[in-house]
Amino acid sequence: MTGCGDIDATKLLGGRVTLFQPADGYRAAIDPVLLAAAVPAVAGQAVLELGCGTGAALLCLAARVPGLAVTGLEIQDLAAGLARRGAAESGLADRVTVLDGDVSAPPEGLRPNSFDHILANPPFWPTGRHTPSASGHKANSHGEGVGDLAGFVQAALRLGKSRGTLTLIYPAERLDHLLSLLAGRFGDIRVLPLWPRAGVPAKRVIVSARRDARGPLSLLPGLVLHGEGQGYTAPVEAMLRHAAPLPLQ
What percentage of the chain carries pLDDT values higher than 70? Predict the structure, then answer.
């Protein structure tokens, strides 16, 4: 691994997962944990995370669903290496594979139409819409580059099975952009707003869609993240600490 610097270890899912992250780079918050909770995977299936970073989402998903085979694709060699380290430390290396590669040109080891579910926490902001972080790792995680959202959707179309799901977490203010890319390619789209607090506009949404499906779009009731004070609501606490699923119904 190049440019490692200081590395921190963080426990997720009540200690089930050990996540390694650069001390001065992007820090995984609750987004990847909630994303993993929303993937409707079961034992025996194959799941791919596009742009897995240091592995927060794919490790949480593998820990929540025993018997699930999870693959991550990551362009940054430091992040990919830390994801592998986290899989080994969490006792998940036998079911988690992390590949180095670009979403826009996936490696040959990823066969078309081979994954039951695909998930992604893609870069949020297009070039010119955000101030890049001084940390290259964080800048690549937050800002679109070669692997923009259209590239993520195209990769999901190529690598996912027919009727398989694509689950993403994305800024609410860019939901129209995401839906425009899914139109005509994915159906049975479900949108779950994530309310920071009751009565406060959503900053993030979780979107689930099914390839080759024709079902209508559903706007779900939404999930309130914080209750009184700084604590999480009971449903969110169950997902963060006890690996509870987040059904998108």
Answer: 89
